[in-house]
Design goal:
GO terms for molecular function: DNA binding; sigma factor activity. It comes from Formivibrio citricus. One of its GO terms (biological process) is DNA-templated transcription initiation. This is RNA polymerase sigma-70 factor, ECF subfamily. There is one protein chain. The protein folds into two domains: 1-103, Rna Polymerase Sigma Factor, Chain: A; 106-207, no CATH class. It is 69% helix and 0% strand. It contains eleven helices and no strands. It has helices at 10-18, 23-49, 53-69, 80-99, 108-111, 114-120, 127-130, 134-150, 152-162, 168-175, 179-197. Helix 2 (23-49) packs across helix 3 and helix 9 packs antiparallel against helix 10 (168-175). It is globular and about 55 Å long.
Amino acid sequence: MDVPRLSHEAPDREALRALSGAPKDRNAAMRLLFDRHAVRLMRHLRFRFSLPESIAEEITAQAFLRAYEKADDFRGDCEVASWLVQIARNLAVDHLRREGRMESLEDEDFAGNADIFCELVPASHEPHALLENKQVAHCVRERFTAFRLRHPEAATALWERHVNEVSPQEIAPMLGRTYRATCQFLSEWGKKLRQFVAPCYELLKGE
């Protein structure tokens, strides 16, 4: 799922370009990317795929190696962070397939965005149980896509916070707001997003 890019993206793109340069530039670029994204990737893998810490660390290392090898393949149509997450996710899926722990990957694309989904689920429901309801999951996905088109800045900020696990302190300069104003922005737009997808849960009443 593509999300509009924010200004913090520039260092990542510069680092990717540097991977085609001199060895010392490549090393510095990899350190920058690793420092900016490694912890976030490991958290994503552990939460999304219930991986042990050691396996998540191994897959994260493999993801950065793959990014190093495939830097020239980056098309620039998404954020570097999203690209890295997709690489790590594919490696995790391959690992789980080899282990025989992934019976169905039909909704893998949406499961990868379940951090946003979990934010939208009413307190009276269990997020991961609702993910199994394909009709509800499809509705939420479609509603979030519509929300993103109408309110790209808010959708991007919420995506950064809940999917990429960027802190409000880091999001504040992206939005040009103070820390307190950013927290308020995320809270208010989170409520609006939940209201926007609320009709999807009406589908549950027919079950």
